[in-house]
Write a structure and sequence with these properties.
It is a single chain. It contains 2 helices and 11 strands. The protein is mainly beta. It has 2 domains: 35 residues, no CATH class; 159 residues, Porin. Strand 8 and strand 9 form a beta hairpin. The radius of gyration is 38 Å and the shape is elongated. The model has no long low-confidence stretch (mean pLDDT 84).
Length: 226
């Protein structure tokens, strides 16, 4: 009887040429108050909007891999205390950059150094003990990366051997290095750098001297990152 009471008004509405409401049909997909003409197909439900996707976060510094490079350094000019501008000074060695997930990466430099002038020649080694850089990404494509890296060297030691003795030197410095990386191979050029020499110890006539000498080197690095 309940079903009959529901169907009779519906048949009466169809026979009279009227419209059938959503409540009469009982279609939950139709909004209340929507009317459907007899014999027609109910309208499709409105499409749901696509879920919003978060914009990618740009990579800022950090996530730097281990880098191993061959370095060549040449002193362009030096002046002040504890230096001699008539010397020709060159160094060839390794630059080891530790992997880092922060904004700073550590550098360890080991090099063989030679210098000479009229009547003077010395050979020895230099080591950058405390040195770190802050790489700034200028271009970060899938295969190519261009970085500008300020490098601060707090402690650099040199031990040089001359005829009849040796001497030790301590320096600190700052430089700007431009690094281009392609498929994990990189070339770094340091067009601007300044080092400060502040202590020398000589074993020939044991003496210890302090002062401030300014050294302007040029450096080139070629290597691979892992």
């Amino acid at each position: 009887m309940r079903r009959l009471r529901t169907v009779l008004p519906l048949l009466a509405s169809i026979c009279s040429g009227g419209f059938v409401s959503a409540q009469d049909i009982g279609d939950p997909k139709l909004a209340p108050g929507t009317e459907v003409a007899p014999g027609s197909t109910p309208p499709a439900p409105a499409p749901q909007p696509a879920p919003a996707t978060a914009a990618p976060t740009p990579r800022i510094g950090g996530d730097s891999p281990f880098r191993l490079g061959l370095t060549y350094s040449h002193v362009i000019e030096e002046d002040g205390d504890l230096v001699n501008n008539s010397r020709a000074t060159n160094a060839f060695g390794l630059d080891l950059v530790s992997p880092s997930s922060s904004y700073v990466r550590d550098h360890l430099g080991l090099a063989y150094q030679w210098e000479s002038s009229e009547g003077y020649s010395a050979r020895g080694f230099r080591i950058d003990l405390i040195s770190f850089g802050y790489p700034i990404h200028l271009d970060d494509s899938p295969k190519f990366r261009l970085d500008l890296e300020p490098i601060l060297t707090l402690v650099r030691g040199e031990i040089m051997f001359v005829t009849g003795g040796k001497f030790l030197r301590m320096e600190s410095g700052f430089g700007l290095e431009l690094a281009a990386t392609w498929n994990h191979w990189f070339v770094d050029v340091q067009p601007f750098a300044i080092d400060f020499r502040y202590w020398i110890y000589s074993s020939n006539a044991p003496t210890s001297r302090t002062g401030l000498g300014r050294i302007f080197p040029f450096r080139l690095v070629i290597g691979h990152e892992f």
